[in-house]
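Re: that backbone. Tokens:
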């Protein structure tokens, strides 16, 4: 089945997805990269041209209508599970994994990776921490619908595989 990595910006979905795909010898797709390729524009350009609502429609269509192959590891964008019926759709179509490090770890990672993320562009460290705190509280409701939740800061790919195997699922 497909495996979907979900969680807040900076939790490591893109990085872990690549590693997991390589470990399991499966194809890998980063949803944001697929969106950028399909639309020949960067995520900030799409936000600027169509607003967040426009981006969310593209995101839903790319997730649900791209015929992503069945055994693919998919790293989603942080907002993907929180709009439309995306979380329900992912749970119906694969195994969902929520990566959940502490808020301060997210802020420490994101402070140097703001430019490509329009929602946090230009924020100071304190503003970023406050923003993460507020948004994560809203988004947790969706992330927690994932089949597997993994806390941990330095999560290894082996720990992710172990958690999947513990579920005793065909994957
Ligand atoms: N376990 C980790 N240890 C150190 N840095 C990490 C870890 N996971 C992610 N990062 C770094 O944090 C930033 C965000 O990671 P990324 O995989 O893009 O997260 P996401 O896709 O969830 O937004 C990147 O610079 C990445 O290299
Ligand atoms: O959390 C969000 O709403 C977003 C997260 C980003 O992906 P990452 O979670 O991979 O940073 C990207 O989809 C876009 O900037 C919006
Ligand atoms: Mg990512």
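Recovered sequence:
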């Amino acid at each position: 089945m497909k495996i979907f990595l979900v969680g807040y910006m900076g939790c490591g979905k893109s990085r872990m997805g690549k590693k997991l795909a390589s470990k399991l010898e499966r194809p890998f797709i980063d949803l944001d990269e697929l969106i950028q390729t399909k639309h020949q524009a960067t995520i900030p350009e799409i936000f600027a041209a169509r607003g967040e609502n426009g981006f969310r429609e593209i995101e839903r269509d790319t997730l649900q209508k791209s015929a992503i192959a069945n055994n693919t590891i998919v790293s989603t964008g942080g907002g993907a599970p929180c709009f439309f019926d995306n979380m329900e759709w992912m749970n119906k179509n694969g195994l969902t994994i929520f990566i959940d490090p502490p808020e301060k770890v997210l802020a420490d990672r994101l402070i140097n990776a703001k430019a490509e993320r329009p929602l946090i562009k230009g924020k100071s460290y304190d503003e970023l921490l406050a923003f993460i705190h507020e948004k994560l509280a809203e988004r947790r409701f969706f992330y927690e619908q994932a089949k597997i939740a993994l806390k941990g800061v330095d999560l290894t790919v082996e720990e992710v595989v172990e958690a999947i195997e513990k579920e005793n699922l065909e994957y």
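The CA atoms of residues 27 and 72 lie 5 Å apart. The chain has seven helices and five strands.
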